[in-house]
Amino acid sequence: MLIVMTSPDAVLRNGQPDPQLAQVLINAKAAGNPVGLISNHAEPAWFNGTFGTSGVQFLQSRGRQSGEIVSQNAKKFALNPFDALVLAAKDEDVQMGKNGGAILVAAGWSAAQQVASLGIRVDSAAQLQEIINLTAGWSGQWWYAGDAGRYRVRALSDLSGLGKGVTQQLFAQRLTATVKGGGARLNALLAVTSRSLLMEKVNELDGLVWGVYPSSKSANDDDEILSDFTHRLRTTVSRVRFSKRGEPLFIRHTPSPKRSAGGGGDRTDPTGQISTIHLNPFYKQSGRLVGKHVIVVDDCTTYGVSFGVAAAFLRKAGAASVTGVALGKFGNQLRYYEIDIKTDPYQPVVAGGFTVAAPGWFPGATSGVAQQVLLTLIP
To answer: What is the superkingdom listed in this entry's lineage (predicted)?
Structure first.
């Protein structure tokens, strides 16, 4: 079940209720989902004529921006705030959704500033219908979840089922096509990932910083294929912005061998990664990472080297916690690394400037219900 919430303004096109948008809300209610239009003001004159006996409700809630209306309705239906989807057309809708911990979807026909900044956007009634259908059917569980002493790892889907011929490189190419293609598949990918994060209440963490683990030949311009995806994800889940577009979290100062593409070497050895990246000095100013909770996004992981390395630099910079989020995970080879950076994490690490200990396998568990949704979103 999914609670669908919006405001009267979201249904209006050129001052009149859009019959196609109204029908999507009626369909959602007919499918067993609670649906409501929320406003600080009185019920509009057109509401009954548009929704009739469909069961779509109107609720006047003064001060709805606090988000309490989201938690109240979640409790009423024995659900959680992350089981609510808010279609936002006004800044007040954005505030209601973010403060309430709901999944936020921007109405593409709105010119409101806060709405335009959201990462998930629908431009038509058909796109809204698609995202409601997918989100209502997504349990939100991670395929893999593991917590260790120095960092956590989450993976959205098991990629082993793609077949022996599918490598990390091929998956990355497919992901690139999905993200660049935009539209329904990208919206769906953002929606399921954000719901999984909201389930863990990451939106309630103070000082949430988002970053992307750099590719082997990153140009350091915050233009990785996952950069835009991560910024969109941040605007959907976070209430405060600590990351800045154009300022990547990590700098790849020297290209590293693309081992997943057959670059050779021991793929479990983090030395090549430690010696080719450092944190962006932009985040050193005013201690921007001190005490922060950092989420590092990568396309997929096999041995977990990138997350171990990222955690080492971030811990040295004073981060309170580090969570690595991979859209996919290959096999059962994930390792836990204890890496200590001995030098300035905002500068290249010199020889002997770090120590590495790999105590063993990463402690974690896979979901009892295999999540194969990602495999359909990244064909």
So the answer is: Bacteria
H-assigned helices in 223-322: 225-237, 271-274, 305-316
Q: Enter the pTM of the model.
A: 0.85
Cβ(282)–Cβ(242) below 8 Å: no
The whole-angstrom separation of Cα 189 and Cα 326 is 12
- Select from 113, 124, 134, 104 the least CA-distant residue to 6: 104
What tokens does 148 get? 């260790």
Q: Which domains does the chain have, with CATH numbers?
A: 3-136 (3.40.50.1000), 144-377 (3.40.50)
Rounded CA separation 377/379 (Å): 6
Taking the mean position of all CA atoms in its chain, how far away is CA 357? 30
In sequence order, the β-bridge partners of residue 268 are none
First to last CA, the chain: 27
C-alpha to C-alpha distance for 81 and 101, rounded to whole angstroms:
5
pLDDT in tens, 305-325: 999 999 999 999 999 999 999
Q: What are the tens digits of pLDDT across the range 147-163? A: 999 999 998 877 766 55
